[in-house]
Amino acid sequence: MCRIGAIKSRNYVHPSQALLLMQSQQKGHDNSGFAMVMHDLGGIFEPYKHLPTLSLACTNEGVRIAEDMLHAAGFQRVMQWMPETDPRPGLDINAMPNYIFQTYDYPKFYKKEDRQTKEDLLLDMRLKLRRALEQDDQGYVYSFWPDVVTLKEIGDPKDIGTYFKLWEPNDRFTARVITAQCRQNTNYDIVRYAAHPFFLQGYTALANGENTFYLKNVELQRKLHRGYIGFESDSQCFLYSLHYVHRHLGWPLSYYKHVITPLPFEEIDGREDRDSLLAIRQSLAHLEINGPNTIIGVLPDNTLFTCCDTKKLRPVVVGRDADTVVISSEVCGINEILPERNWEKDIYPHERETVVIDNQLEVHRWRQ
Amino acid sequence: METVKVQDITANDLPWVIRYDASRCTLCGSCVAACSFRAIEPKVERRRMVFSEGDLPEPKQRFSAVPVIRQVRNLTQYCRGCGICTKVCPNDAIAPARNPDTRHPIVTRCVAGDSIKRGGRKNLEAGTRTLDKLRIGRISQMTDPSLDAQRHTFDLLAPFGRIMPPGKLPFKIGTDGKLEPDGQAPPVRWIYPVVIGDMSIGALSWRMWEAVAMAVAYLNEECGLPVRMCSGEGGVPVRLLKSKYLKYMILQIASGHFGWNRIVKAMPDMVEDPAGVLIKIGQGAKPGDGGLLMAQKVAEHIQAIRGVPKADLLSPPNHQGLYSIEESVQKMFLSFNAAFKFRVPVAIKVAASATSVSVFNNLVRDPYNIVGGFFLDGIDGGTGAAHEVSLDHTGHPIVSKLRDCYLAAVSQGRQGQIPLWAAGGLGRAGDLAADAFKMIALGANGVFTGKLILQMAGCIGNEMGRCNACNTGLCPVGITTQEPRLVHRLDPEKAAQNIVNYFLAMDQELRKLMAPIGNSSLPVGRADALVATDRGVAERLQIQYVC
Fold first, then answer.
1. pTM, two decimal places
2. ipTM over 0.90
3. Domain ranges of chain B
4. Angle A57-A139-A295 (CA atoms, 0-180°, nearest 5)?
5. CATH code assigned to B11-114
6. A203-226 pLDDT tens trace
7. pLDDT tens digits for range B458-510
8. Overall fold of domain B132-151+189-545
9. Which residues of chain A does B137 touch, with a Cβ-Cβ cutoff of 8 Å?
10. Interatomic CA distance for residues A367 and A349, integer angstroms
11. Do B188 and A254 touch (CB under 8 A)?
12. Cα first-last separation, chain B
């Protein structure tokens, strides 16, 4: 079973906090991998918030292919960071030769384009890179987006932390929002892409539990958007539904819950907004999830939220202090990084609730 | 041999042979009185008995006239194997036995020079069923918990009506950040995923039709199951049209338009909208044929409801003036959506065919978004009357065709926009819940059923040639006849009770199938929940093969 966690803070946080958050829950996962997505970057990335950063794990040949393609497309590199690694013997990690975070400026002829066009360009570029690097297993492109970096690797999370020196806090590699998870997808093949969190155009999602409506979801999503690909994990469906509802349809986040876990017909019938809710339920019936799941999501504006399936068959808890909010599958994770908080104020979201943390760090509880 | 010609019909030429035990018979006459087909008759036989009365053998003989029951040997009054004689016999002295050596299909054609007509269903391949090669094999164990069928709540409803693609929903975002309706969308009704299929007054006796209507009202009003019933092409009693119970009825129109005169005239007096309108293009049991009500069933009240004289009532095989799929859409649009002021969903029923996917694709791509359901009827469906050659040899099985249509929608990302409803032999083995569940997992939104409803009421017909005489007007259990003497055999309240109870049982069973796969909503298209024990079936339906 997965354990998932997220940190959102007023201050920049180092990934060691995410490792600590997950480490105490290790009995609940199988230590088969580590993945994290960082939004709202600090440290060396802070001056480049408006420019896209490529998160790439690849071979030497993969670096060459990716750079050639980016340059051919007109992207100009403005910054590169390759984490210093500690390849000491005995570490349980299935490492790729290179881990590269490169920040690029947009092609000249895109400079005056609107945001939507630039965002579509970034998506198409990432999909192109992914396809090119898939051949001969040359590399993995996790994200190519402003103010976001992604790291995923196969192995023991503790050792992965050691390898990337993530256990040693510093102020060079930080973010205000970090989502993390410590397990490879063991239901299907072990593939780097299959580890949560998943990322698409500013949206991040990670989930706990099996998606029993995976086939229903995937069969519809494949036709909804060119970016809905891969499906190495049944949890990617949660991300794509979030992206579809919030970005593609342009509906407020509160409707995400109505799409994935629609109210029973009897309850819809008693509501003032029954016409809208019924229309949503019937038009998006194939995006319904039927549990057991907990989902944590991040929006492009760095809003963090969590919600569950309607049977609430997977745990989640939200804890906070003045500067930081933490979402975690198990409360022991929060105890680890916010030991001084008032635990009586912890929130255990119910099955009809979406808990939303905005950028002022206010915690909203929306009842579906 | 001079007085018997080899071509004469004998009992051995007929599909059923009466087994009669004179030693048990009390000559009460119940069997003869009860046989609606007049297939047995009393007869006096001359018997010889040899006996001896003295101390030493002195054989003598005595002749006596003994009344017995005998099978009638002709091609109009022959035994259908219905077993009513056995049912009424106090001494178990009589029973029909299936005759594997029957020459009936040959001699009937030879004598009559006409095609054989009968009711019921296909009687070939009674033993093989695709659905029985499927199992619900994806059971929640470790990765996700099974649900508790008794304690969890389940949403067992299916849509009837055209469903808009999400991007075309008429929404705007209001000032409070909520979605608000901004325009009109087609009407959609959420109903129980098992619709009682279209059987007309005329095909059914008035008591049977009333029993179904009563059962539907009871299921809705007392049991909370929103079950809908389709009227069939034969009109609806005016009293029902003007009652609040009309909301449970799906009105059918087929190529004969029987009964629509009265329906249209009742519109100003309707206090409720009907549940929907179903336009019948074809029927799975006899695709390419129109409806057929034999004159012997066109009783006075049928003449009144349909506005016809006593004659064979043949609906044309086509809707007149309908030459293309686009026209069928317009026909629906013009006649019915508008008639009910766009408040009532209109769906279409077609026989499964090699062309079904093309038809479905055309409807799915219809830019007017008005087709509210695709009812697909397979070869194993039933009918009140048809030519035997149509029943046995024309048609298309439902399972793969339904799957094809669903996958066609999937390939366009349009699944669910026209709800798929499947029928044709579902529940043949008695387990409608299992069949319905499997069809839903293959992509159906719901199923519809007719024959099984009749069997709940007491119909004894089956796929192995038993009875199937719905066309004769001589239904031995009062279900498909207008003959008052026979109709009164059916207790409509008991029939309604049986239907209600079957639905309640089925409802429980559907939950018992959803709980193990961990779903509280209907798993429409969740084919990963199914496995097949036959490699060909698995490959064809794109599901996992297991052995």
1. 0.94
2. yes
3. 11-114, 132-151+189-545
4. 65
5. 3.30.70
6. 999 999 889 999 999 999 999 999
7. 999 999 999 999 999 999 999 999 999 999 999 999 999 999 999 999 999 99
8. TIM Barrel (3.20.20)
9. none
10. 10
11. no
12. 59
